[in-house]
């Protein structure tokens, strides 16, 4: 196929291209410093497995995109470039995984 014949409307429907872009974003960390967040009005409940922790409101919490993007429970073989991890079993976009993408921060401070 002639590369010049590709149209943007065709490319944007490519689920694999979506995987390539999201995997590239995951491995290029953007802001790698730990970004502080403070829950001002309510306590934060952190749950991991059978453990549950309560972090009192007003306590600074910090996290970096590097730690998030190399969480082996979320991204197995996290140091490998695998665009297919962003696709589900039917080769459709895996929107569930997007909530773990932290390249340009999250929430009100997102770029």
UniProtKB/TrEMBL annotation:
* Acetylation as UniProt keyword: no
**The protein's name in its UniProt record:** Cyrochrome P450 monooxygenase
Q: Which SUPFAM superfamilies match?
A: Cytochrome P450
Species: Apiospora rasikravindrae
Cofactors needed by this protein, per the record, are: heme
Q: Which family does it belong to?
A: Belongs to the cytochrome P450 family.
Q: Which keywords does this chain's UniProt record carry? A: Heme, Iron, Metal-binding, Monooxygenase, Oxidoreductase
Q: Which domain of life is it from?
A: Eukaryota
Q: Which GO terms describe its molecular function?
A: monooxygenase activity
């Amino acid at each position: 196929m002639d590369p010049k014949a590709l149209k943007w409307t065709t490319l944007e429907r490519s689920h694999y291209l979506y995987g390539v872009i999201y995997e590239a974003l995951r491995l290029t960390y953007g802001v790698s410093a730990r970004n502080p967040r403070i829950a001002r009005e309510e306590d934060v409940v952190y749950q991991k497995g059978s453990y549950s922790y309560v972090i009192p409101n007003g306590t600074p919490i910090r996290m970096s995109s590097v730690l998030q993007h190399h969480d082996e429970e979320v991204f197995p073989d996290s140091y490998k470039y695998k665009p297919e991890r962003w696709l589900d079993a039917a080769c459709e976009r895996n929107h569930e995984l997007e909530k773990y993408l932290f390249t340009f921060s999250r929430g009100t401070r997102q770029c």
